[in-house]
From TrEMBL:
It catalyses: beta-D-fructose 6-phosphate + ATP = beta-D-fructose 1,6-bisphosphate + ADP + H(+). Belongs to the phosphofructokinase type A (PFKA) family. ATP-dependent PFK group I subfamily. Prokaryotic clade 'B1' sub-subfamily. Its main location: cytoplasm. This is ATP-dependent 6-phosphofructokinase. Keywords: Allosteric enzyme, ATP-binding, Cytoplasm, Glycolysis, Kinase, Magnesium, Metal-binding, Nucleotide-binding, Transferase. Residues 7-284 form the Phosphofructokinase domain. Substrate binds at T130, I131, D132, R167, M174, G175, R176, E227, R252, H258, M259, Q260, R261. Its EC number is 2.7.1.11.
Amino acid sequence: MNTKVTKIAVMTSGGDAPGMNAAVRAVVRACIYNNIECMGIMRGYQGLIENELIPLDSRSVRNTISRGGTFLQSARSKEFRTPEGRAKAFENFKANGLDALVVIGGDGSFTGGMIFNKEHGVPVIGIPGTIDNDIYGTQFTLGYDTALNTVVEAIDKIRDTASSHNRLFFIEVMGRDAGFIALNAGIGAGAEEILIPEENLGIERLIESLETSKKSGKTSSIVVVAEGDKTGKGVFELKDYVEKNMPEYDVRVSVLGHMQRGGSPSCFDRVLAGRLGVKAVDLLIEGKSNLMVGINNNEITATDLEKAVKLHHDINKNLLRVADILSI
Ligand code: F6P
């Protein structure tokens, strides 16, 4: 074992995601297993600037595996984007006797980590945590599986009322600029149409598809729309357009919003969090830095943080075909 690493800090940063607590727990316990001290940084980079750190021992993470959100809390720090902010953060980092950092978050958080490493030489490992699943270098980000299950459960409920009233629902889901949640939850919930930013087929195609659905005997429909989709200017405009062109439809809109970010993590996310947290500590012990841990074909992998930030995680276009076939 390389004994250089003696004290590791862990933080959660950016939008929270189910499974972040489980990942913190894994980092803490992997540290203790390897006789390394661990500290938690509150509110991401902002907490480091304000020297808000807490010691974490194995009991301090008890009963956290099933909790949603992040007990370390999260923030998007503007101050850390400045060299002065980062210098303050580094002073506190040193004063606490820390020698490595694990950042659980998305690409913005990883960019901050890379700059911190470049300016101050702090070894940094990233753990991808975001419901959007939009990070290159991992097939699954923490929280994505839980969010999919949350969305499917919500759509199932909307389906009940949609079919009772013969209504058409536009359901907006999160995902920022990516359509992972919309596409996979849409297939899982049997949506008639799925609109994602990666594939803009135009509003006319939507009308055609709804007409085909109607002719095939469907009396209610669910259209899942990713928040980043560009078919219209959002779900409310889509509703207006369809009402104008297909007055026979009684249309409703449901924006699922932040409920998609909450809740107890799924078993998949808990196991993933455990595997990623252990690997992050292993890499730091090996003297590695500037890497993001991820999961690919069920193996835990390490990808350069720079690639994780710059490259694009593409959706599987074959899923669009599957969605089309299943919705006839
Ligand atoms: O990145 C996670 C996410 O929930 C996105 O899906 C969404 O666009 C964004 O964060 C919302 O951010 P906020 O919580 O700041 O409104």
